[in-house]
Amino acid sequence: MDKESLDTSRISITAHYTSFAWRKNGLSHPALTTGPGRALFLAAAPWMWLGRNLLGITDIETYLLQRHILMDHLMDRALEDGKPAQVLELACGLSPRGWRFLARNQNRDVRYVETDLPGMAARKEEILKQAGLLQKAHSISALNILEPEGPSCLEQVCKKHLVPGCRTIVVTEGLINYFPLPVVEKLWQRIAAILKNQGGGLYLADNMVLPKNDLALAVIKPVRRIIEAVARGRTHLHFDDDRDAVKTLLGCSFDRAAVHRPEDWAKSLNLPLCRSRSTTRVLEAWVTG
To answer: Alpha carbon of 213 to those of 50, 172, 216: distances in Å?
Structure first.
């Protein structure tokens, strides 16, 4: 397995692009957007326009909105009973999810823990503090998902920040497609074990699949190359068949799993769609107590 496939630092770079896309669509705070994010977004705009308007395929901006809104909804749906809960987001980047989640649940017993590599985690915490967005129930921690031990490994961060026995949701958005499937499976096994130790909980992730249309592939492939150039490494598309995604999650010790397509939620969540079938998938997996 090549070293670049195991380099988590490259993921933080793409956080700038996504932060601008979320802000452009009213989902984020101005403090969480950056100049590099705007530059990256504008550089990719011609390819996005071509794919969306001429070929009708899911461009990156649409993909980001579909996955972000759908994951937010599934998280909220899991907490409808109003019981205490906590959320752990891995590789959070400049995502507005923690701030938005606590803002809409300010009268409930909920906590939010965001994690990323030390540089991004420190930057995120400083941004939130300066903008007055960091609440008592909101914490930021350095974490490297590939470290098997030490203070920045997944298990130690959970031990430090999670309340034992409290219902837990783990979120990885924009993460798994940067790593080979064996690395992802190992991470999923660790997340399932943590949720089991917590007495049960929910895991949410996104996955991108390749379109079947040849013309769509002609646009997607160069866009993918752009993403890989910006992120300084390969991207990996793991599951073309949704049944394979469910089978893999169950094989990683989750008790049940499902795959959601934007088309199934377009009306109820007002999700943007393109003419062709979506390449966006949101994975939902549960561990029972």
So the answer is: 15, 28, 5
Give pLDDT < 70 ranges for the chain: 1-13, 51, 54-57, 210-234
Nearest-angstrom CA–CA distance, 144 and 90: 9
Give the per-residue pLDDT at 2. 46
CA distance 122 to 117: 8
Calpha distance 173→89 (Å, rounded): 8
9 φ/ψ angles, rounded to the nearest 5 degrees = -65, -30
Whole-prediction pTM: 0.90
What single-letter amino acid sits at 194? I
Q: Show contacts of 101-110: CB within 8 Å, 24+ apart.
A: 101/72, 101/75, 102/135, 102/137, 102/138, 105/79, 106/135, 108/79, 108/82, 109/83, 109/84, 109/85, 110/79, 110/84, 110/85, 110/86, 110/137
pLDDT in the model for residue 211: 60
Selection from 73, 42, 124, 10 nearest residue 271 by Cα: 73
131, 33 contact by CB (below 8 A): no
Phi/psi for 197 (5° steps) reads: -65, -30
Q: Is 264 helix (H, G, I), strand (E, B) or coil?
A: helix
pLDDT single digits (tens) 151-174 = 999 999 999 999 999 999 999 999
Is residue 283 within 8 Å of residue 204, measured between CB atoms? Answer: yes
For the domain 3-287, what is the CATH code?
Answer: 3.40.50.150
- pLDDT value, residue 23: 93
**Number of other residues whose CB lies within 10 A of the CB of residue 247:** 13
The residue count of the chain comes to 289
Residue 93: C-alpha distances to residues 136, 188, 278 (Å) = 20, 20, 25
- The residue written with tokens 């070929």 in the block is 55
How far apart CA 256 and CA 278 sit, in angstroms, is 24
